[in-house]
Amino acid sequence: MSFKEQLSDKRKELRELRKAIPETFAGFVAMEQAASADAALDHKQKEYVALGIGIAIRCDACIVSHVNALVRLGATREEIADVSGMAVQMGGGPGLMYAAKALAAYDEFTAES
Protein backbone atom coordinates (compact mmCIF):
# COMPACT_ATOMS: atom_id res chain seq x y z
CA MET A 1 0.00 0.00 0.00
CA SER A 2 1.37 3.43 -0.93
CA PHE A 3 1.99 6.11 1.68
CA LYS A 4 -0.82 8.17 0.19
CA GLU A 5 -3.19 5.22 0.54
CA GLN A 6 -2.03 4.67 4.12
CA LEU A 7 -2.75 8.31 4.93
CA SER A 8 -6.21 8.10 3.36
CA ASP A 9 -7.02 4.89 5.24
CA LYS A 10 -5.83 6.34 8.56
CA ARG A 11 -7.95 9.45 8.05
CA LYS A 12 -11.02 7.23 7.47
CA GLU A 13 -10.23 5.27 10.63
CA LEU A 14 -9.82 8.48 12.61
CA ARG A 15 -13.17 9.81 11.37
CA GLU A 16 -14.81 6.66 12.73
CA LEU A 17 -12.95 6.97 16.02
CA ARG A 18 -14.06 10.61 16.30
CA LYS A 19 -17.70 9.46 15.96
CA ALA A 20 -17.20 6.79 18.63
CA ILE A 21 -15.49 9.03 21.22
CA PRO A 22 -16.25 12.62 20.24
CA GLU A 23 -15.34 14.27 23.55
CA THR A 24 -12.02 12.45 23.88
CA PHE A 25 -11.20 13.09 20.24
CA ALA A 26 -12.04 16.79 20.58
CA GLY A 27 -9.80 16.98 23.64
CA PHE A 28 -6.91 15.45 21.71
CA VAL A 29 -7.45 17.83 18.78
CA ALA A 30 -7.44 20.80 21.16
CA MET A 31 -4.18 19.57 22.70
CA GLU A 32 -2.64 19.03 19.25
CA GLN A 33 -3.63 22.52 18.14
CA ALA A 34 -2.20 24.09 21.29
CA ALA A 35 1.03 22.09 21.05
CA SER A 36 1.44 22.90 17.34
CA ALA A 37 0.83 26.63 17.63
CA ASP A 38 3.71 28.96 16.90
CA ALA A 39 5.58 29.84 20.07
CA ALA A 40 9.31 29.55 20.78
CA LEU A 41 9.29 27.04 17.92
CA ASP A 42 7.15 27.55 14.84
CA HIS A 43 4.71 24.94 13.55
CA LYS A 44 7.15 23.59 10.96
CA GLN A 45 9.87 23.10 13.57
CA LYS A 46 7.39 21.29 15.79
CA GLU A 47 6.48 18.99 12.89
CA TYR A 48 10.17 18.11 12.56
CA VAL A 49 10.20 17.17 16.25
CA ALA A 50 7.06 15.07 15.78
CA LEU A 51 8.57 13.30 12.78
CA GLY A 52 11.73 12.52 14.72
CA ILE A 53 9.71 11.05 17.56
CA GLY A 54 7.54 9.09 15.10
CA ILE A 55 10.65 7.56 13.56
CA ALA A 56 12.28 6.82 16.93
CA ILE A 57 9.17 5.09 18.32
CA ARG A 58 8.48 3.34 14.99
CA CYS A 59 4.98 4.71 14.41
CA ASP A 60 4.07 4.19 10.75
CA ALA A 61 1.00 6.42 10.84
CA CYS A 62 2.96 9.17 12.62
CA ILE A 63 5.63 9.13 9.94
CA VAL A 64 3.12 9.35 7.10
CA SER A 65 1.11 12.08 8.80
CA HIS A 66 4.04 14.28 9.77
CA VAL A 67 5.90 13.88 6.47
CA ASN A 68 2.70 14.90 4.68
CA ALA A 69 2.35 17.93 6.96
CA LEU A 70 5.99 18.86 6.39
CA VAL A 71 5.56 18.62 2.61
CA ARG A 72 2.64 21.07 2.89
CA LEU A 73 4.84 23.35 5.04
CA GLY A 74 7.59 23.41 2.41
CA ALA A 75 10.11 20.98 3.89
CA THR A 76 12.89 19.79 1.64
CA ARG A 77 14.12 16.26 1.14
CA GLU A 78 17.39 17.28 2.77
CA GLU A 79 15.57 18.54 5.87
CA ILE A 80 13.61 15.28 6.15
CA ALA A 81 16.89 13.37 5.82
CA ASP A 82 18.57 15.53 8.48
CA VAL A 83 15.73 15.01 10.96
CA SER A 84 15.82 11.31 10.13
CA GLY A 85 19.52 11.18 10.96
CA MET A 86 18.88 12.61 14.40
CA ALA A 87 16.02 10.15 14.94
CA VAL A 88 18.33 7.28 13.98
CA GLN A 89 20.83 8.45 16.57
CA MET A 90 18.04 8.48 19.17
CA GLY A 91 16.31 5.28 17.99
CA GLY A 92 19.25 3.05 17.11
CA GLY A 93 19.04 0.39 14.41
CA PRO A 94 15.23 0.20 14.25
CA GLY A 95 15.23 3.99 13.82
CA LEU A 96 17.39 3.55 10.72
CA MET A 97 14.71 1.40 9.09
CA TYR A 98 11.94 3.85 9.90
CA ALA A 99 14.04 6.82 8.75
CA ALA A 100 14.28 5.14 5.34
CA LYS A 101 10.47 4.88 5.40
CA ALA A 102 10.11 8.60 6.18
CA LEU A 103 12.34 9.55 3.25
CA ALA A 104 10.42 7.20 0.92
CA ALA A 105 7.16 8.78 2.07
CA TYR A 106 8.55 12.25 1.29
CA ASP A 107 9.56 11.09 -2.18
CA GLU A 108 6.07 9.73 -2.84
CA PHE A 109 4.27 12.83 -1.53
CA THR A 110 6.39 15.12 -3.69
CA ALA A 111 6.37 12.97 -6.85
CA GLU A 112 4.53 14.25 -9.86
CA SER A 113 1.13 12.57 -10.17
From TrEMBL:
Sorted alphabetically, which PANTHER family does this protein's record hold? ALKYL HYDROPEROXIDE REDUCTASE AHPD, BLR3452 PROTEIN
**Protein name (database record):** Carboxymuconolactone decarboxylase family protein
Q: Which residues form the Carboxymuconolactone decarboxylase-like domain?
A: 22-104
Show the Pfam families listed in the entry: CMD
